[in-house]
Amino acid sequence: MRRFLLLSLGLLLLAACGGPEPQVRSGVEVIANAPQAPESGQLVNETPTRWIVELSGQSVSDGVSLQSVEAQHAVFRQAAETAGIKIRYAYTDLFNGFSVELPKGSSPNKLYTLPGVVAIYPVHILALPPTQRVEPDLATAITQTGVDIAQNDLGLTGKGVKVGIIDSGIDLQHPAFAGRIIEGYDFVGDDYNAADPAHSTPVPDPNPDDCGGHGTHVAGIVGGKDSQITGVAPGVKFGAYKVFGCEGSTSDDVILAALERAERDDMDIVNMSLGSPYGWSALVKGINKLVKKGVVVVASAGNEGASGLFTTGAPAAATDVISVASFDNITVQLRTFTISPDNRTVGYFLASGSIPAPTSGSSPVVVASPLNGCNVNGANPFAPGTFSGKAVLIQRGICTFREKALNAEAAGAVAVLIYNNRPGYLQGTIGGPISVPVVMLSDSDGATIAARSNVTLTWSNVEARFPLATGNLISSFSSWGLSQDLEFKPDLGAPGGFIRSAFPLEQGGYAVLSGTSMSSPHVAGAAALLLEGNPAFAHGQRPALVRTMLQNTAYPKPFSLAPSSGFAESSFREGSGMIDVLGAVQTRITVTPSKISFAEVNGAYTQTLTLKNRSNVPTIYKLVHVPGISATGSVYAPSFVTGFANVTFSANQITVPAQGETTVSVSITPNPGLASKSLYGGYILFQPVGAGVGLNVPYVGLQGGYKSIRVLEPTPFGFPWLADASFNQLSGGTFTLQGEDKPYLLFHFEHGAQIYQVVILNGQTGKPIHPKFNKADLAWFTDRNSTRTGIFTLAWDGTYISKYKETEVYNTDIPIPAEFKPVPNGIYRLQIEVLKPTGNKNNPADWETWTSPAFTIARP
């Protein structure tokens, strides 16, 4: 897609702050509403300048010789150099193509004119999460998944298994990995930051030493082992593939290069605790080839839980990747202060970016008014001196932590206490220097302080262990499924909230991070234990068997937003639930498919499940349906309701014979009271009658199927628009195409589009300007907008696609542009056309369209 911007307009914030509540039909009960993420409303230009280019030939992993691939590369390199295009990376093993950077102001369409190009993909930026320094124990996390028993009773350590960590590197001097880092490479250098143009040029070297900490922490969870920590699989060996600098972000073209290196180094498992939400990526093609070669690939589902549904993105959204959600740890060790009058001990997290909190001294505490501490009409709500000499208590919500802290600081506060507005402890970042300490509290501690009068806070140097009210519940940050193409994601979950693991020695040696970044390596370590315990797995079947066994033996947890409601968590957020490593290692019976996804189907669905017994003992199972919470209303801020499906079985009890198999049919009928576009799901449990390991198959559906999805959402402002360069809505007009005097299209994508195209119409007849050569823009697999205030824009330069290449991408009959020519002066309309996810491009009902008002092109 060319000249394609993601914008967030201040004028759209009005829509984010209100609007009607979703209409829930009879028989469907609202259980909870999703907490909403603050939206800045600032204009953000996310036009990509770097692209991954795919060439027409196959890669080495497809059986083509390296010499043949390099010959094609030589032709492309020469043409790219002539066109002034900078090559960043070349790919030969899992993917045939390049990562390139365009000259400033160049259209990506020029890439299509180069020899062999069949597709281009924007390079996504992936940021590292902030760190939090507290002291929960990895030992408590491994008890949540049965890893401790698998290690201690079964003696499993992951010995003989090689795990590639694609991350910020690993601290090569850390005792937790002594003698076990056998491969590695630094693809970027310490100063690299993909989001900073001044530092976005990679400077690779052979030393993958970690200066950021994230990769060391991840590796420690997979298999670190020293006097302080024991990871999930402490006997594995590591490949360290550094794709982040000391801070900042990386991009998926760098990650693709690391995947190729991991494949050449013969890794058994690859962990990627990173991702780009909402959309598709060229990574998927390389990953799927890696999996077909027998490599188990595990990736974090993402930390976009506050951004609504369909936020699981690449690489976790790839079909063959094990996508991992996060559950909170069960305990946490925190720094403390006490409050009067009873010297109650309160634990806190220091906000990332904050100066250290004192370890002694006292100050009075005052409750902020307004409680959220956010700007009112753009101004600080607190007068100067309001909080002089006092600590101020502020509640989470509405605006950023930084805005709250800056407002309190400007009003004279000596400390800022921000407490959660939902159950559990709070972690967060203030994003930059502030002269007073900022600490994060649980909802219950904040409410206690707010309810007391004349409270005095006394800082302490004592640390204490606290139970986590959210322990064993899905983490608030964990991303929701499904993927943009309605794939059932995430697949399963593991502990990822408040996890202590290794950290670079020069930064203290150990630290706590929270995120699906921490749950993914837990599963990668579990996969290593499974591979060690099942050496007879056929190499090519290992990824599918590992995922099946982990999904089958996982178990659903209570709904995190209302854990006392008695309802299970949504399957499209936790997958099959919390993994049970002991169960996965011990089970000799599997169920396939290991998940049931029919989101593209409108109405009832029947799936046949096959149970295969690899033991010498028959097992009897009773079948039970456990529904999960449904989601309805806005994609960005859904409501969570009952609306459970009706599920029946061809047999309510089955026997799986020794060394044999049996089948059972499951019929799922959606609740007719559930609103269109609602996601619903649940779990089919196989409960053993007598001895045996319980099994689980999650399912998910979409009320109305894929046809219910609306990609071109108008929003309260009635998009799409025809507009000028200042984004003023127009009902027509004349454009010279000189400078910024161009017609703009503004539109909002509520969901990703399988195909997006803009057709040029004769403004007087309303017909396309040519039967075939009539498109101003064309793209496939386009992301949804990240917020409900986000829009895409197209600035049309008056050209049309005048030639297509013979090759067609993905074998889907999508034509590939080869050249562009200007249309003559005249009257035109532009028609946006989008194909719904999983839709049939030959079925007009699967397309959405919008036609602009007529306008005139009048070049001088």
TrEMBL record:
Q: What is this protein called?
A: Peptidase S8 and S53 subtilisin kexin sedolisin
All copies of the C5a peptidase/Subtilisin-like protease SBT2-like Fn3-like domain together span 596-700
Top-level taxonomy: Bacteria, Thermotogati, Deinococcota, Deinococci, Thermales
Organism, per UniProt? Allomeiothermus silvanus (strain ATCC 700542 / DSM 9946 / NBRC 106475 / NCIMB 13440 / VI-R2)
Leader peptide range in chain numbering: 1-18
Q: Which residues form the active site?
A: 167, 214, 517
**Domain spans labelled PA:** 364-449
> Keyword annotations for this protein?
Cell wall, Hydrolase, Protease, Secreted, Serine protease, Signal
Q: Per its record, what are the GO molecular function terms?
A: serine-type endopeptidase activity
Domain of life of the organism in this record? Bacteria
- Domain Peptidase S8/S53: from-to ranges: 158-576
**GO terms under biological process:** proteolysis
Q: Name one GO cellular component term.
A: extracellular space
What family name appears in the similarity comment? Belongs to the peptidase S8 family.
